Structure formats: structure tokens, C-alpha cells
């Protein structure tokens, strides 16, 4: 039996647990200090067994996944270094920063265990085990940060286990990881939060701001709803990188200010065109940087049963819908549904079917 211990069964730990659970020869053990959480993990059947005992969870484990907030990772490693772990046990983490946890593992003696840092490049703005899903990592990149001393055999065993997640593994050096992820994940979170807070202040004086907040605002600010503790830890841990990136960001903002002050219409056009080109060149069909869905938007009248009618129509024509979201729905006002498809031909078929009765936009 392969024993997998997961410390911190939240969004990421829970999604890993669901990816591994019920696989042949695998037992998944969840750990939390909180008895109510342990009960919840069991009740939701995310793990095979859960415990409040750190030692019981770690004892005899073949794989240990540390899935708490970034500030919990080094204390976890310290604690593990004081136990006798199973020889050959692989300890890994899922923290959004890699430099400090990897350096900590290098300093510590984990006995016969091996630490390999990890970071699945997939997530959500929601947190907790309630948001966990077995397919969260499918098609996403999953960064591993082995050191020079990491035995190839240990890396291969972890890689083999992670095949259950259906993610694409990629090796990155820890500091390099923190630079890149700082720019493509951490900076966007700061910008989204700052933008929402800016608009929230205007909204205090005039509620029309939130009434009119439509697709553009919602698209760029979804991640502003992310968990405050998780993000406090990430940003503090990656402080040096973030301070440099924010200086560059200030320069980008200042350059827009100059374009507007000087009425440089061509310059503004150039900025949009070059952003459009880079974004368009990003690989589309994977999660991680850009979600891999094909989305269409349907204007729908506000009457009961409308969602059922649409899903039944698509189902009857074997169109596979991956996600459905009500973007705007208020009494007496037509709503907008976002329908997401994983495959382009399903989106095309949905467009063809829905155009007959609804206003549909891509
Ligand atoms: N949310 C994302 O999109 C995302 C993506 C990839 C990696 N990560 C990383 O994964 C880790 C977990 O994030 P999440 O989104 O699953 O968060 P979460 O809040 O959903 O889960 C965190 C888990 O850790 C436990 N926990 C909370 N405080 C703790 C502490 N001080 N010590 C030990 N355990 C504690 C919680 O009970 C919970 O089970 C973080 O290190 C985060 O940086 C997050
Ligand atoms: O999709 C989201 O909500 C995320 O924030 C996921 C996201 C990201 O920024 O892309 C967030 C943190 C991670 O460490 C990895 C992925």
C-alpha cells in the first residue's frame, strides 16, 4: 500500500487528495490540528482517513504533501526533521513560492527522506476543502524544483505519482520560479485587489459603480476574491521580487499617464496592439496561465427555467458543456450566461443551436 499524507486539506491539498484517492494500492491520510476539520475531511470523503496527530499522519508515509499557507511550510519541515520518516519517503509542498522552502529543506536533515519542492500552476479564487475538485490540475503545468542532490529515482517516483493529476510536470530552479510566478501570478493579484479597492471607494459615494461593473471589471478582478491569509503569506515571502516588479509596474502606469497627457493616440493604440499580440501568442489549450475554455455569452430573459431550457437543448444535441455561470441576473433585467466548452467544435455547435432563439456573443 502506498501511503500519502496530506497536511492541510484545503483547495489544493483536497484536490490532490481527490486525484489520488481510490487509485489502486493508494491510501490517502489527511491531517489538521482542528478536530472539526478532520471530521469534515472524512465526511466529504476527500481522504481515506484523517487525524489530528501529526506523527500518526507522517509515520510510514511514502509521500508527504505540505499544503498549508506558505508561512506554515518551513515549520512543517522543522517538525518532520525531528521524526523518523520512512526511508525513501518523499516530502513535497505546493506553496506558491519556492526559494525559501527549498533553502530550508537543504539546511535540514530529513534522515532518509527526500524533499522536492512543488507548485501546481492551477487554482481558484475560492479556498477550503469545499472548493477542491479531482480535476483541478488537469492540463495545468506543475512545477517541481529538485536540487542538484535530488536522487533521480526519487524524482521519478514523485513524477509517476503526479501522473494521477494529469498535469504537465516542469523543472524550474526555485529562485527563477519565484521571479516568473511573481510576474504572472502574484503581481496580477496585487493589481486586481488595488483596482477593486479603488472602485470600492468611489462606490461608497455612488452605488452606480457596482451596478455598472460589467465583464471587463469582473474578468480582471476575479482573483481579488482570493484568500487573504494565503496571499498575505505569498506576497511577504516573495517580497524582494514583488518590490522590483511593482517598480516596473509604476513605470508602466507612468508611461500610460504620459500617453494620455500628451494625447498620444498612436501610442495608446500601439500599447493595446502589442498586448493583444503577446496575449494571443500564449498557448491557449491549457489551464494555468490562461484557462483553456471556449466561452460564449448568451443574453437571457429573466424567467424561471431558462437555464434548464438551454442545458437541455445542448444536452439533446450531445454538446459537452464544461461550465455555466450567471454573470448578471437581476429582477426584470435580462441576464447574461457564460457557457464554457473544452472543445471548439462543441462551442460552434452551441452557437449554431442557441442563435435561433437567443442573442449570443463570443
Ligand atoms: N489557491 C491557489 O490558487 C493556489 C494554487 C497553487 C498553490 N497554492 C498554494 O497552496 C497552498 C494552500 O493553498 P489553498 O488555496 O489550498 O488554501 P486553503 O485555504 O484552501 O487551504 C489551506 C489549508 O491549510 C490549513 N492551514 C491553515 N493555516 C494553517 C497553518 N498555519 N498551519 C498549517 N495548516 C494551516 C487549512 O486548514 C487548510 O486545510 C498555499 O501554500 C498556496 O500558496 C495555492
Ligand atoms: O486561477 C486562480 O484563481 C489563481 O489564482 C491560480 C494561481 C494563478 O495566479 O494563476 C494562483 C496561485 C498559484 O500559486 C497558482 C495559480
From TrEMBL:
It is an enzyme of class 1 (oxidoreductase). The keyword Cytoplasm does not apply. Keywords: Amino-acid biosynthesis, Aromatic amino acid biosynthesis, NAD, Oxidoreductase, Tyrosine biosynthesis. InterPro entries: 6-PGluconate_DH-like_C_sf, ACT-like_dom_sf, ACT_dom, NAD(P)-bd_dom_sf, PDH_C, PDH_N, Preph/Arog_dehydrog, Prephen_DH. Belongs to the prephenate/arogenate dehydrogenase family. The keyword Metal-binding does not apply. It catalyses: prephenate + NAD(+) = 3-(4-hydroxyphenyl)pyruvate + CO2 + NADH. Residues 295-362 form the ACT domain. Residues 2-290 form the Prephenate/arogenate dehydrogenase domain. It comes from Paenibacillus gyeongsangnamensis. This is Prephenate dehydrogenase. PANTHER family: PREPHENATE DEHYDROGENASE, PREPHENATE DEHYDROGENASE [NADP(+)]. Pfam families: ACT, PDH_C, PDH_N. It comes from the Bacteria. The lineage of its organism: Bacteria, Bacillati, Bacillota, Bacilli, Bacillales. Its EC number is 1.3.1.12. GO terms for molecular function: prephenate dehydrogenase (NAD+) activity. Gene3D superfamilies: 3.30.70.260, 6-phosphogluconate dehydrogenase C-terminal like domain, NAD(P)-binding Rossmann-like Domain. Pathway: Amino-acid biosynthesis; L-tyrosine biosynthesis; (4-hydroxyphenyl)pyruvate from prephenate (NAD(+) route): step 1/1.
